[in-house]
Amino acid sequence: MGRFSRMVFRFSGWRLEGELPRAGRFVVVSAPHTSNWDFIVGRLFYMAYDIQPRVLIKKESFRFPFGFLLRKLGGVPVDRTRNNELINTAVRLLRSSESMFLTITPEGTRKRNPRWNPGFYYIALKAGVPLLLSYFDYKFRTVGVGDIFMPTGDLKADMRRIKLFYKDIHPRHPEHFTIGNLE
Fold it and tell me: Where are the domains of the chain?
């Protein structure tokens, strides 16, 4: 599947950037998330490296007939109304695995959201795993990874670092993306 995925990227004009670690436990911050295409591009990216990610997806997306397919692709249904349980479930998932790429979109929606949900940060902090920053840049047709770092516990400083990483990335729908306040 890795060869197939790289071929799809090459023929569609997309490039892979950065080096994805082969193993380990990570919370993968995946942004900007403004389109359903992000899931497809992201899944092809993981396939290029022969890695099976886990992706937190709102439970409403798992209705018939999509539930089976989403689970096969690594989807984990989440109830977004119960944040504490979501964090605890994700931490248990990470701690029980030798290697896992748990992918989360910080915006939590494809619509414009200036207030990113810090749940991904608390999951990484509580599980003791690094954050891996990944992106989709539709203007330059690139998908890749950048920084890897351990959360320090200083949410404000770490969120600023994360948001600055994404400030020059071009989403599919720019009107739906904002990094919000950097303060």
Answer: 2-171
Give the architecture-level CATH label for domain 2-171: 3-Layer(aba) Sandwich (3.40)
- How many Å apart are CA 25 and CA 28, to the nearest integer? 9
The residue length of the chain stands at 183
Torsion (CA) 176, 179, 181, 183 in degrees, nearest 10: 170
What's the half-sphere exposure (Cβ side, CA atoms, 13 Å) at 17?
Answer: 16
First to last CA, the chain: 43
- 3-state class of 8 per DSSP? helix
Angle at 145 between CA 127 and CA 181, to 5 degrees: 75
**How do residues 77-116 score in pLDDT, each as one tens digit?**
877 676 667 888 899 989 999 999 998 888 766 676 677 8
Q: What is the pTM of this model?
A: 0.84
Residue with tokens 């018939």: 64
E strands, 59-150, where? 75-78, 100-104, 131-137, 142-149
Hey, what are 72's tokens? 């096969």
